C-alpha cells in the first residue's frame, strides 16, 4: 500500500514541477516532504515508473539549476534594498 503512495507522490511531484517550473525546495515545501525526498522521487523512483516524465522533469530542474545564481543574486539585492530603505527612516 505504501509503495503505491510513494509512486503516486513521485508522479505528482514531477507534474507539479513541470507545470509550475518550481524548484526542488519549492516542491518540497508544497508537498510537505524534504528536499532529499523530492530529489530521490524524481531521480530514482520516477525513472522506474515513467521514464519520459522523469526526463521532462530533469530538464526543468536543470534549467532551475542553471538560473539559481540569478535568483540568489536577486534575493541578495532585494535584501540590501530593503535594509537601505529601513536605514533611511
3D structure, described in words:
The protein has 89 residues and is mostly helical. The chain has one domain. It contains four helices and no strands. Helix 1 crosses helix 3, helix 2 crosses helix 3 and helix 3 packs antiparallel against helix 4. The chain is elongated, with a radius of gyration of 17 Å. The mean pLDDT is 88.
Characterize this entry briefly.
With 89 residues, the chain is mainly alpha-helical. 89% of the residues lie in helices and 0% in strands.
CA-atom Rg in angstroms: 17 Å
Q: Tell me the number of structural domains.
A: 1
Q: Bin the helical content.
A: over 70%
**Spans of 5+ residues with little confidence (pLDDT < 50)?**
none
Strand segment count:
0
Number of helices: 4
How does the helix and strand content classify structurally? mainly alpha
Oligomer: single chain
Distance from first to last alpha carbon: 58 Å
The string of secondary-structure elements, in order, is HHHH
What descriptors fit this protein?
single chain, 89 residues, mainly alpha, 4 helices, elongated
Topology:
Elements: H1 2-20, H2 24-31, H3 35-49, H4 51-87
